[in-house]
């Protein structure tokens, strides 16, 4: 009698976190570009504010030869970055948790890392488009001078990347706060609007009350705006900053600190489904 031994079945290969994240990134980006309401807010809001304030404030900054609109543009680019990351993720993740999307994803090979790779890649694409639109519009409409030296483009690159990372982590962290999808917009948009007023977006930062300056300096939007001003404005404008310099080192340190703190918060507070308690 001969016996046959069945060959052991090969264990099915589970896709890596990176490969799942790449597929999720493509899906997230397609979904975002198909959501007209989100796109209108993300892309149109900074442009509309830029047009309105550009029409109202067309004078030069006192004591300088620089048009206030050029000062204002750097702040609006920073605002565009925060809208595409912090606002987008803070609301979207809360909605997906409330409507059961995250609960369904948990039952698939989707890992937390892959899910956030998809989100981060999506907001990075949206942010790059947002920044490109704002810069192109500012150059055409307001004559914004582009950086003329490699070191300024390098500053632009690291401020953009650190700013996107900090606001992305902050958006993921705050997404754990809303208890329902209905409350997500109010919880996320309110601090976003407040930060614009205390971060030197609509006004020259050093001319605001000292208490507001100290409060605004605690958050990343102020430092992203200041870093971008160092890219698009002449070095003579350093004199109107509170410290009399662009403070590149402090900008990098504050943004990195926000990345680390919000990363820890995101890891410890993320839940696939909202608590019913």
Explain what you see.
The chain has about 280 residues and is mainly α. Helix 3 packs parallel to helix 6 and helix 6 runs antiparallel to helix 9. The protein is built from 10 helices and no strands. The protein has one domain.
How would you summarize this macromolecular structure in one to three sentences?
With 277 residues, the chain is mainly alpha-helical. The chain has helices spanning 17-34, 36-56, 68-98, 101-106, 112-142, 150-174, 181-198, 210-216, 220-232, 248-269.
Give the overall average pLDDT. 88
Number of helices: 10
User: What fraction of residues sit in β-strands?
Assistant: under 5%
Tell me the series of helices and strands, N- to C-terminal: HHHHHHHHHH
Helical content (DSSP H or I, runs of 4+): 55-70%
Compute the separation of the termini in Å: 64 Å
Number of structural domains: 1
Shape: elongated
Helix/strand-derived class? mainly alpha
Q: Report the sheet with the most strands, covering strand number, pairing sense and barrel closure.
A: none
**Structure summary, number of beta strands:** 0
Family: Belongs to the ABC-2 integral membrane protein family.
InterPro entries: ABC2_TM, ABC2_TM_bact-type, ABC_2_transport, Nod_factor_ABC_transporter
Protein name: Transport permease protein
Main location: membrane
């Amino acid at each position: 009698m001969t016996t046959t031994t069945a060959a052991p079945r090969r264990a099915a290969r589970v896709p890596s976190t990176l490969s799942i994240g790449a597929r999720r990134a493509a899906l997230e980006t397609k979904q975002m570009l198909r959501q007209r309401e989100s796109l209108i807010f993300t892309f149109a809001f900074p442009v509309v504010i830029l047009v309105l304030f550009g029409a109202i404030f067309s004078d030069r900054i006192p004591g300088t030869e620089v048009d206030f609109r050029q000062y204002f543009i750097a702040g609006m680019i920073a605002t565009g970055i925060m809208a595409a990351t912090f606002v987008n993720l803070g609301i979207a993740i809360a909605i997906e948790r409330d409507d059961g999307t995250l609960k369904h994803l948990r039952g698939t090979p989707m890992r937390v890392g892959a899910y956030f790779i998809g989100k981060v890649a999506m907001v990075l694409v949206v942010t790059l488009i947002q920044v490109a639109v704002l810069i192109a519009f500012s150059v055409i409409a307001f004559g914004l001078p582009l950086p003329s030296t490699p070191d300024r483009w390098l500053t632009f690159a690291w401020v953009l990347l650190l700013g996107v990372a900090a606001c992305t982590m902050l958006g993921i962290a705050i997404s754990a706060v809303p208890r329902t999808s209905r409350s997500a917009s109010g919880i996320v948009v309110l601090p976003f609007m407040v930060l614009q007023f205390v971060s030197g977006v609509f006004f020259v930062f050093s001319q605001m009350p000292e208490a507001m300056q100290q409060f605004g300096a605690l958050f990343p939007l102020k430092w992203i705006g200041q870093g971008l001003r160092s890219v698009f404005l002449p070095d003579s404008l350093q004199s109107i900053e509170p410290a009399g310099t662009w403070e590149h080192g402090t900008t990098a340190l504050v943004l990195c600190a926000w990345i680390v703190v919000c990363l820890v918060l995101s890891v410890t507070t993320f839940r696939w489904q909202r608590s019913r308690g």
